[in-house]
Amino acid sequence: MREPPGPLDLVAGCGRNDFTRGVIWRPLLYLQQHGPIIRATMVSQTVELLREEIPVKQQSLTLSGDIKTGLVLVDLVNGFCTVGAGNFAPKEPDERISMMVEESVRLSKAFSDKKWPIFAFLDTHHPDKPEPPYPPHCLIGTDEGKLVPDLLWLENEPNATLRRKECIDGFLGSIDKDGSNVFVDWVKNNQIKQILVAGICTDICVLDFVCSVLSARNRDFLPPLENVIVSSLACATYDVPLHVAKTNKDFVSHPQELMHHVALYIACARGAQIASEVLFE
């Protein structure tokens, strides 16, 4: 008996029934049964193609006390990182997000040990102030807006500044009613020459913040800041495969690795440096 048609045969347009010893292979049924696997393979191949066509220049980064460096953590809160914690939290364990949290915790502890400055954004929203097109998330007073358990110690860390924000872009979210900017003040008061950025989501809050900071730096609004560095390992985004998005009219396809790569590419194109790993002297 012949083997059933493989994914490539089906994608190429295999549409005929194959009668062999009374067995009828049905391509549509095969796609229904194995569609998620086929789509995952195709997404993986697309990501590899993107890495070839629009490569992201990454390099190892070694930090020392010679250049004043500050760590910026973007939205490492339960609502984005802890399984089942909210509308934007992973529904099941997510290896990429778990790795991001682990690396962010490692960086935070290293900065704390060296008494280097840390700035942490916490996405927090009021119920009566929606953030379209996104559903309600990280509502004030809930556990969603709290730091992940492994970073709760930052609340009592003397070298850490915590800032709750009600918008995607942390730079804009740092502006107070009197026009002052908490993040700008943090950079100036600590005489920070470069920042290392970690967090979630790479293509949303991280990217918007990085682009705004680069523009502010170029306009001399952030002296003495010179370098903006994004840690690729300490950043991640969420995953909504196409077959899942099709189950709900409000969902939009959002392949995790593809969007992560595109975001790093855009950040690099805007002037950020991308660190493949971060070491300490």
Topology, number of strands: 9
* Architecture per CATH nomenclature, i.e. the level-2 architecture of the largest domain: 3-Layer(aba) Sandwich
CATH fold descriptor of the largest domain: Rossmann fold
Reading off the top of the CATH hierarchy, the class of the largest domain is best stated as Alpha Beta
Radius of gyration: 22 Å
| Helix and strand composition category | alpha/beta
Principal-axes geometry comes out as globular
GO molecular function: nicotinamidase activity
Protein name: Isochorismatase-like domain-containing protein
Family: Belongs to the isochorismatase family.
Domain Isochorismatase-like: 70-247
Throw out a few tags for this protein.
alpha/beta; 7-stranded parallel beta sheet; Isochorismatase-like domain-containing protein; 281 residues; Isochorismatase-like_sf; 9 strands; single chain; Rossmann fold; nicotinamidase activity; NIC1; 2 domains; globular; disordered N terminus; two-stranded antiparallel ribbon
Summarize the topology.
Elements: H1 7-11, E1 18-20, E2 23-25, H2 27-53, E3 58-63, E4 69-74, H3 78-81, H4 95-113, E5 118-123, E6 160-165, H5 170-173, H6 182-189, E7 194-200, H7 202-218, E8 227-236, H8 242-245, H9 256-270, E9 273-280
Parallel strand pairs: 3-9, 4-5, 4-7, 5-6, 7-8, 8-9
Antiparallel strand pairs: 1-2
